[in-house]
Amino acid sequence: MKKIYAIIFSAVVLSSCVDMLNLSPVDQLSSGNMWTTESLVDKGVAGLYVNFYRQDLSRIQLRHNDFTGINRQGWMGMGFDGDYLGDSSSPLRALWHENKPANDFVVWYEWKWAYTSIHQINEALANLEGNNAVSAEKRDRYIAEVKFLRAWFYSRLNKIYGGTVYSSNLHGKTLENTPSVPLYLEVISEKECIRSQSSVKDVWNAVITDLTDCINSASFPDNTLSGNYGRPSKGAAYALRGMAYMYLEDYEAAINDFTKVSECGYAFWEGKYIDMFHHLNEKNSEMIFTIQFDEATGYCDNLQLMIGGRDSWNSWSNIRPSSDFVDYFQNSDGSVFNWADVPGFEDWNSLTIAQREVFFLRDGINSGVNPVTGKAWTSTQKSTFNERIAKIGKATFDKYYMDKGNEARARLAYNSRDPRLKDICLTPYEPYNTFKDFTDNGGKAQIGKELRWPFFSDLELDDYGDYYMGDNQSMYLFKKYSYSQPEDLVDRLRCPTDWPLIRYTDVALMLAEAYVETNQLDLAAAIVNKVRQRAGMPSVSPSGQNQMREAVRYERRIELSLECHNYFDEWRWGTYKEMKFQGKDVYGDQSWWKEWDGYREKWYYNDMMYPWPAPAGECQRNTNLIRTDGWAY
Known about the structure:
The chain is mainly alpha-helical. The protein has helices at about 40-45, 70-80, 95, 105-130, 135-160, 165-170, 200-215, 235-245, 250-265, 305, 325-330, 380-390, 395-400, 405-410, 420-425, 505-515, 520-535, 545-560, 565-575, 575-580, 615-620; strands at about 80-85, 100, 285-290, 320, 425, 430-435, 445-450, 475-480, 500-505, 585-590, 600-605, 630. Strands 1-4 form a two-stranded antiparallel sheet. The longest helix is centred in the N-terminal third of the chain and has 27 residues, at about 135-160. It is globular, with a radius of gyration of 25 Å.
């Protein structure tokens, strides 16, 4: 069991700055009653990880009464790769609101979440300095570990509230004069919690200083692959410092740091891509810094609840692949995928979005018989077909629909693609062996379930029936991080799979990006091709800087899907509107055939939506904070 934090650190109050911590009560590890024995020092450092964990695993999203854990679902849904089916408390409200609210819960939550940890970290550092309860070697290792955590949290804050070179230039500013977040690098009183924001550059410099201390520590291990697994290491410090240099566009410094990561013992996972994310394989050389989970109560995760579908451990499928993301996967020969190149889809571009639905209808509509069950369609099912035909148009339906073969034609669009597509996503009419729970199919796996359209429950069919995804079936499904077999989990709220905050492929692709920006294209191609070869894709040969730049971005978008990097990558590259919004000011969730207007949630783009603002409530408490233009206070 991965007992990496102590329960006595789990109480966190929810106000601003120092009063988040309540540093003196006897039931917490505070300066007055802790750090006096080796056991307490160990618990004090372990307790700094508690804020990564959610306490209420029954929820699929952050709400006003759910104040714990890293906000993965929000960043998954705001990236190009994911859609998020939420409600009025959704972590996607930054997308949903035309006028972006600075009092939005998640805008405040990220700020509160990070500063809760930072102030705990500062308290820990103050008590570790000169501490004689542990050996000098262990004390110095802990100091480096804790400084790494502070650097990680400030890195996250800077990416969210500070922005990038691109976003700063877009707003007529530079990293030197763009405000980010206040820097608190020491224990402070509540009265002292009134600083204004430091600049983006100053925050990155503070991150770099902490990480340099980590790297210079003789007691900090090169890696934690064989001991203290999952804890920070010198390799992790090089990786995170290199990322800071990338945001500063200091590519030579980034290259120097990223190349050190492999020297510290980290390397590519050599197995099949998707197997890396199964809990049986989680401890591997890819994993540089992870949140560790276990199936035991108190140490488990609930990602399965949000990813998958009703026929996969009775999950809720709130996080789903965007149709644009699925369409982005290359053909298996490395060429760009286009719907009009698929046999039978030649007229795709001449049809309206509504008419394209005809290509995704299930077989047997004209014959009147469900080919799966051999039974005649019911009157309700026939009525559903008539609704779809009316929307498509009878003439278009008659011209393109194939009573036997419509499903096979649709399947062609997903065959002969980048093999990672079917590893990461469940696509229409692809048979899927899966498991719901003990109440279905006698506790055995279900065979050959498929996403079909329109969806019909066919509850008598445990095998070969329609895959039950959720309330809207014409969206794709994530298979990455989702489990589908009875032996995989205890239940959907007890997911044991570690989640990487930093892994080697992320670092390697950033190194490739730095090589591109310094015009060392052959070195960039060598890294990209290692990733592609592992995936079963052909190599790329650099024909120019722009082509190689796009090759690196393709790999980051595909390889790191659902790992919460994409939102920040797209803003760092200046491509967020192009990718997430497909160049539009108003966009939204899409069906398989790219219907979005009125389909699900609408999203509203404006140039000021990133970086995020200092939360309205924090600005009221601390009048020295600068309010961000373009956000509603």
